[in-house]
Design goal:
Rossmann fold; globular; 3 domains; 434 Repressor (Amino-terminal Domain); six-stranded parallel β-sheet; about 45% helix; about 350 residues; alpha/beta; six-stranded mixed β-sheet
Length: about 350
């Protein structure tokens, strides 16, 4: 166990470009580290899922040996990326992962909570589809540590959570399409009530407003981050008197529905319509043309959430209750300047 931890510290030092003693000083919260260096080392520690020795010792004392991970479904590669990050951190501990799918049903979320209350768990990582305030309150009452990933509603300041910069991602995707000359840019987001959907639409609107492009409500479409909603909403967009020249889909899976609808209408990507996705899961590089998309560091979100949970289980304070990881635009082959005059 000691050798494994030393190797981990050495890996952190190598990734951060510092010495092993510097990593130790950061871990022990020593003041004799430059602020920029401390920030870089702490970021690598979060991303690597490093488990401090005192956390590991606490887990060995009175531990059930189980961490629960709850996801809405297992139909999307989105969730597999998060699961992979969680497993990566748990492999460094003696904990086992208990995976549950709620199938996007509030009733199943409630059933899971009842089962956890009756059984034993050290803590939970939650990727829930519905508003969770009551269920989170119940976990608190039962003193079950938890961390929420990619939250789907409003969370209070006391709720530990990990997410991504959705607003910045929406802005970056829209600004890229604007830079190519597009002016009729549509967005197919997720459920209108979801915070991540709202943030992406807000980033989209900001980019258009900054470019002096009037907001057209007909070009803002709700979806469910699923393929069929990408297909359905694209068909509706193509029926408009002035169809869009580019479509920004709220997920890569939804973008696959956009591709299918455009093919069904005899249109080509990007010759006729440009497409941008969101997530950067494996299918983004498997389709033709390869999908330009906003990358969410999903596996990293899983690692950071698990590291936070392990600290909560051990009774350690968190450096921050809310962690937002940076999104980035990945340019591939699905976008091109619009043909003909822009509108």
């Amino acid at each position: 166990m000691v050798t494994k931890q030393r190797n981990t510290i050495a890996e952190i030092a190598a990734r951060a470009g510092v010495s092993i003693p510097t990593v130790s000083r950061v871990l022990n919260k020593r003041p004799d580290v430059a602020p920029a260096t401390r920030e870089r080392v702490e970021r690598v520690i979060r991303e690597s899922g490093y488990v401090r020795s005192r956390v590991a010792n606490a887990l060995r004392r009175g531990s059930s040996g189980i961490v629960d991970l709850v996801v809405p479904d297992l139909d999307s590669p989105y969730y597999f990326e998060i699961i992979r990050g969680v497993e990566d951190v748990l492999e460094r501990t003696e904990l086992r992962l208990a995976l549950s799918s709620t199938h996007n049903e509030a009733r199943r979320e409630q059933q899971w909570l009842a089962q956890v209350a009756e059984g034993a768990t050290d803590g939970a990582i939650l990727v829930l589809a519905h508003g969770q305030s009551e269920r989170l309150d119940e976990l608190r009452r039962r003193k079950i540590p938890f961390v929420v990933v990619d939250h789907r509603g409003e969370l209070g300041p006391a709720v530990p959570s990990v997410g991504a910069t959705n607003w910045a991602g929406g802005r970056a995707a829209t600004e890229y399409l604007l830079s190519l000359g597009h002016r009729r840019i549509a967005i197919i987001a997720g459920w209108a009530a979801l915070r991540c959907s709202q943030d992406r639409i807000a980033g989209y609107r900001y980019a258009l407003e900054q470019a002096g492009i009037p907001i057209d409500a007909d070009l803002i479409r709700p979806g469910e981050f699923r393929q069929h909603t990408g297909y359905e909403q694209t068909c509706a967009l193509l029926e408009l008197p002035q169809p869009p020249t580019a479509i920004f889909a709220g997920s890569d899976l939804q973008a696959m529905g956009v591709y299918a609808a455009l093919r069904a209408h005899g249109l080509m990507v990007p010759n006729d319509i440009s497409v941008v996705g969101f997530d950067d899961v494996s299918i983004a590089t498997m389709v033709s043309p390869a999908l330009t998309t906003v990358r969410q560091p999903l596996d990293e979100m899983g690692r950071v959430a698990t590291t936070m949970l392990l600290r909560l289980i051990a009774g350690e304070p968190l450096d921050s209750m809310r962690v937002e990881l940076v999104t980035s635009l990945i340019v591939r082959e699905s976008c091109a300047p619009p043909h003909g005059p822009t509108r």
